[in-house]
């Protein structure tokens, strides 16, 4: 954990900044809030703020490891090969995936792209062989990459545009008593909206995530140059839609995103509908974007759960409950999506 002195609440810093220079964009607000949030704690698990799929069950990471090994074997077992995980949390997914991949001879070098020093400490303890990167630019440029990002894109800041009487404006943030509120900015933003979507009812909000677009663009470029495959897993939608999806989670409850910035996890629904064409524009093969439940079932999560239960009958109920959380339609199974990408000459991936 970071040993720096407790810092000034981010809300106070925002108030001073806004007092001096005027409203800040929602994108700025979300980016700073999450940078503070992730750098100051390990948010994962029952004692934290939220639980992710790899923390629910080892089956999640194991099936991803098998998927990667299957891709790599069918592509010709090229070496060197690199496992690259974006926002690896506690390193749990990597541990489970690499353990199951090793049984098929896949032992890649391990690269973690992580911004949080607090989580880096946890990852170092769990996966000491990993190498850390602040962004993708320093990941090795030779040899295929196997890229995995689970609940990474949803933490990247979004820009929101709102239709006003004066046309499209960016949503900006200002203080209001002890919280913050959104107002429409003063600059015309019509040019930022694709022409086909420019006519809209008053109050319509369009959300874009430049960071997610840039990440997918860069990963797709690596797949084209180096070969490999990528899995982006997140909650989101695969059809264009309007409206704000910003939410805040703290201690497993939804809270107001505009109170105490930096103290809750701010997330958005990932707009997979816009990400697929961005990847395709670089020439990679888009395998599809499918619901997590269907993908895990196609990969054999039911059989895996059965094997685990036979090995440890005393845990059979817990294993079944965990599986249901991952695949259940009312749980993560439908809301979460898996998007698969592959470089030239790489096979069609299982499960899509
Ligand atoms: N993938 C993990 C953790 C998800 S939480 C799991 O499934 O359990 C989001 C992760 O992304 C954290 O590791 C967080 O520190 C990291 N992260 C968030 N924003 C980031 C950014 N801009 N750059 C790099 N890592 C980031």
Summed up:
It is built from 12 helices and 16 strands. By secondary structure, it is of the alpha/beta class.
Low-confidence segments, given as residue ranges, are none
Major beta-sheet overview: 8 strands, mixed
Order of helices and strands: HEHHHEHEHEEEEEEHEEEEEHEHHHHE
Estimated share of beta-strand residues: 15-25%
Kindly describe this structure.
This protein has twelve helices and 16 strands. It has 352 residues and is of the alpha/beta class. The longest helix is centred in the N-terminal third of the chain and has 17 residues, at 58-74. The chain binds S-adenosyl-L-homocysteine.
Summarize the SSE layout with pairings:
Blueprint: H1 10-21, E1 24-25, H2 26-39, H3 53-56, H4 58-74, E2 82-86, H5 92-102, E3 109-113, H6 117-126, E4 131-133, E5 145-150, E6 159-164, E7 167-176, E8 179-188, E9 205-208, H7 210-226, E10 228-237, E11 247-250, E12 253-255, E13 265-267, E14 270-271, H8 272-280, E15 285-291, H9 292-298, H10 301-311, H11 316-327, H12 332-335, E16 336-342
Helix pairs in contact: 4-5, 7-8, 10-11
């Amino acid at each position: 954990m970071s040993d720096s002195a407790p810092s000034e609440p981010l809300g106070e810093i925002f108030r001073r900044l806004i007092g001096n220079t005027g409203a800040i964009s929602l994108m700025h607000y979300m980016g700073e809030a999450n940078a503070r949030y992730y750098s100051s704690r390990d948010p994962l698990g029952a004692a934290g703020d939220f639980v992710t799929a790899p923390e629910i069950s080892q089956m999640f990471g194991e099936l991803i490891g098998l998927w990667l090994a299957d891709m790599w074997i069918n592509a010709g077992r090229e070496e060197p090969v690199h496992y690259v995980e974006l926002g690896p949390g506690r390193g749990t997914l990597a541990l489970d995936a690499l353990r199951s991949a090793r049984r098929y001879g896949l032992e890649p070098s391990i690269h973690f792209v992580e911004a949080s020093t607090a989580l880096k400490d946890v990852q170092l303890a769990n996966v000491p062989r990993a190498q850390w990167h602040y962004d993708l630019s320093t990941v090795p440029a030779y040899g295929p990459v196997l890229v995995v990002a689970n609940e990474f894109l949803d933490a990247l800041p979004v820009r929101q545009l709102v239709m006003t009487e004066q046309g499209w404006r960016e949503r900006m943030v200002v203080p209001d008593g002890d919280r913050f509120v959104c107002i429409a900015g003063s600059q015309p933003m019509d040019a930022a909206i694709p022409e086909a979507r420019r006519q809209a009812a008053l109050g319509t909000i369009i959300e874009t995530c430049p960071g997610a677009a840039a990440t997918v663009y860069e990963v797709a470029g690596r797949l084209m140059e180096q070969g490999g495959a990528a899995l982006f897993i997140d909650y989101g939608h695969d059809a264009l839609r309007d409206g704000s999806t910003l939410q805040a989670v703290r201690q497993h409850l939804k809270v107001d995103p505009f109170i105490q910035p930096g103290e809750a996890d701010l997330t958005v629904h990932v707009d997979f509908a816009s990400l697929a064409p961005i990847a395709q524009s670089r020439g990679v093969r888009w395998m599809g974007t499918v619901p997590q439940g269907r993908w895990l079932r196609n990969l054999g999560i039911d059989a895996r759960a059965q094997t685990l239960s036979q090995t440890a009958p005393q845990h059979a109920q817990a294993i079944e409950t965990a599986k249901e959380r991952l695949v259940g339609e009312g749980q993560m199974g439908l809301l979460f999506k898996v998007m698969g990408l592959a470089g030239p000459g790489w096979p069609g991936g299982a499960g899509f």
